[in-house]
């Protein structure tokens, strides 16, 4: 599955540091913050689901153990013991399938989305902070240049040189940040969809295994 996306901010507007660039950048930053909040909720919900599932699996395992203990009460009834063993074994198999599904939820949703938040979104946030720092330096350079005394050529030249260097640094940093934001916006689609697809494949396998197990029990049920 391929996703394509162009620059989320026009490069010419970026180079000009236009009001449109600032406005669009602010919108993109707000979207990223919202994305982070929503992803953290998904991660938290999935973590709760996995923990609750593990508790369920643990309790069902305990149930199977208790049933094994119960079977000793029928040691003189081989037929009943055999039936109990078959049913208990089936419960244990279901537990294995459920454990695998929970493991896949951890390996896909929890691992992938947590990595996306801690690496990709964190990188975009750090890039934004650096851009803000350089932007402040550019504002200071503009202020110094405008207040330079023109009757002092050396001071004026220094102010002009500082402004030129700071403006070049800002443009480079702004372009780098636009690239970072664009890649994040493109990557989020692939990351989310591919992660959920992997989890749904695991769910499909889980239900197929359960179906096959139950189908295998049909002759036993009818007997």
TrEMBL record:
<keyword id="KW-0677">Repeat</keyword>
<dbReference type="GO" id="GO:0005096">
    <property type="term" value="F:GTPase activator activity"/>
</dbReference>
<dbReference type="GO" id="GO:0008270">
    <property type="term" value="F:zinc ion binding"/>
</dbReference>
<keyword id="KW-0040">ANK repeat</keyword>
<keyword id="KW-0479">Metal-binding</keyword>
<dbReference type="InterPro" id="IPR045258">
    <property type="entry name" value="ACAP1/2/3-like"/>
</dbReference>
<feature type="domain" description="BAR">
    <location>
        <begin position="9"/>
        <end position="223"/>
    </location>
</feature>
<dbReference type="InterPro" id="IPR004148">
    <property type="entry name" value="BAR_dom"/>
</dbReference>
<dbReference type="Pfam" id="PF16746">
    <property type="entry name" value="BAR_3"/>
</dbReference>
<keyword id="KW-0862">Zinc</keyword>
<dbReference type="GO" id="GO:0005737">
    <property type="term" value="C:cytoplasm"/>
</dbReference>
<feature type="coiled-coil region">
    <location>
        <begin position="18"/>
        <end position="45"/>
    </location>
</feature>
<dbReference type="InterPro" id="IPR027267">
    <property type="entry name" value="AH/BAR_dom_sf"/>
</dbReference>
<protein>
    <recommendedName>
        <fullName>BAR domain-containing protein</fullName>
    </recommendedName>
</protein>
<keyword id="KW-0175">Coiled coil</keyword>
<keyword id="KW-0863">Zinc-finger</keyword>
């Amino acid at each position: 599955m391929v996703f394509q996306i162009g620059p989320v901010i026009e490069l010419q507007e970026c180079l000009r540091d236009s009001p449109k660039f600032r406005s669009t950048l602010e919108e993109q930053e707000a979207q990223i913050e919202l994305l982070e909040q929503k992803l953290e909720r998904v991660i938290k919900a999935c973590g709760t689901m996995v923990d609750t599932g593990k508790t369920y699996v643990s309790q069902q395992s305990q149930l199977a153990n208790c049933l094994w203990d119960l079977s000793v009460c029928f040691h003189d009834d081989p037929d009943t013991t055999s039936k109990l063993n078959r049913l208990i074994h089936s419960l244990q198999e279901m537990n294995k399938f459920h454990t695998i599904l929970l493991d896949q939820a951890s390996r896909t949703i929890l691992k992938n989305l947590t990595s996306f938040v801690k690496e990709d979104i964190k990188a975009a946030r750090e890039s934004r902070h650096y851009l803000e720092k350089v932007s402040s330096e550019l504002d200071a350079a503009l202020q110094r240049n405008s207040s330079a005394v023109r009757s002092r050529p050396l001071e004026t030249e220094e102010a002009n040189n500082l402004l030129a260097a700071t403006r070049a640094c800002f443009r480079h940093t702004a372009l780098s940040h636009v690239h970072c934001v664009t890649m994040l916006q493109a990557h989020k689609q692939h990351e989310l969809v591919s992660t959920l697809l992997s989890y749904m494949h695991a769910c499909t396998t889980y239900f197929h295994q359960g179906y096959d197990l139950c189908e295998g029990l049909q002759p036993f049920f009818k007997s």
